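Hi C.,

You asked whether I'd gotten around to modeling the 181-residue construct. I have! Everything is below, sequence then structure, no commentary in between.
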Amino acid sequence: MSITTTSQFKAFLGLAAEPEGAAEALETAEVLVAAYIGTATLAQATQAEVIIPVRNRSTIEVSLAPITTLTSVTYDSGSETVADTSVDATSPWAVKQSDGDLFSTIQYTVNYTSGWVSGDIPEEAKRAILATAEALIEGGGRGTTSESVGDYARMVGSGESSSAIPPIARELLRKWRRPQI
């Protein structure tokens, strides 16, 4: 089930009628956006991720999906809860302790919700999906693109994300993208 609707897409495009292939374009756009930010799906899911930091750290990073709601961080096989934790303001992939304490090299379980349901998606993520679907409808994800500057030239095939996700969508997704290590 898509987390964006064809009526949202129609309004985004400023059209009176839904364009042909709108539902398919939205589904494909959501898959592309999920892959671009580094997760398997944008659909809401409950996660329980076990993390053992390799050194004392101010944050611990989840790997499955960006956090939309942090439920708890526990240790000692779930019997102890780390008090005052929150999603790090700089990345929805990281959890920090509000009091500034460090996470030590023990096993933690981070319980959280990832993804969204229709009507609950952040505006920038929704606009990125709609812009990507628009590019797909208009043929922006097909064929090859070439560019040149002076003596330098390159071709980008249609399978590469740089041609599948429009630049405006990439900019809108910056905060949701999984940090590269």
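If it helps when you're writing up: Helices lie at 6-13, 22-37, 123-137, 161-164, 167-172.

Thanks,
B.
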